[in-house]
Amino acid sequence: MSPRPAEDRCGRVTVLLSWSAGGPYALAACARTRDRIKAATLVSATAPPGMGIPLAGMDPVLHGIWRIAGISRISGISRVLIAVQLATLRLAAQYHSDLLLQSLYLTAPRCDRDIVARPEVREMFSRTFRTASAPGVAGLIDELTLLAKPWTVDLNDIQGATVEFIYGDKDRLTPPVIGVRLSRLLPGSRLTVIGVPLRNAAPSDK
Question: Taking a C-beta distance cutoff of 8 angstroms, is the pair 65, 85 a contact?
């Protein structure tokens, strides 16, 4: 992960806010551009694969794709398998986004399902799925493969930046235990667990 190109375009960065899979990028930026970043807040950040709990509560289909992505550095065939599965999800997002949303939230906590049942929320997610998947699956394949590999950032290199981890106590996809372990790896960081689920179902922004 290399945050420098984006930061060189944006100029001086002082505070970062990341969500879900954007968490590793924020930590990498803190470690590698210490002169630019004063603070970072990571909401429902994913875990390094070595923790054994990345995206712990994802549905079976996405979990299978994640596992395949984890061995992509060993076998080129796995990349093809990921492409086939993501292409299927892309078609669902483009033409049956409502059904896709329903399947993704089938095992979600009741509070999440109640929110998604609102028409305006369903429409927002459906529109997001269609927009994010419209360009194709190449970017998604690269992202999954990257996130399934061991992190190359050394958290010991984060000095001077205030880092806060925020998790929801009912979050199954990125459970609070991830924040507990990450905060232990980063002395001086702060962990906040709130009583509102922050479940990452839509494509993440970084």
Answer: yes
Q: Give the pair of three-digit tokens for residue 158.
A: 């984060």
Q: Give tens-digit pLDDT for 76-118.
A: 556 666 677 777 778 887 888 888 787 777 777 787 888 888 9
Beta bridge partners of 14: none
Q: Is the pTM of this model over 0.85?
A: no
In Å, how far are 104, 129, 142 from 201, measured between CA atoms? 7, 10, 19
Helices (H), the chain: 4-10, 23-32, 60-70, 76-95, 97-104, 110-116, 119-133, 138-147, 176-185
DSSP string, 69-82: HHTTTT-HHHHHHH
Asked whether residue 170 carries a pLDDT value surpassing 50, the answer given is yes
Q: Is 136 left (phi over 0), alpha (psi -120 to 50) or beta?
A: left
Whose tokens are 């990498």? That residue is 28
The tokens describing 153, both together, are: 């950032």
* C-alpha to C-alpha distances, 60 to 39, 56, 107, 133, nearest whole angstrom: 35, 11, 10, 20
199, 108 Cβ separation under 8 angstroms? yes
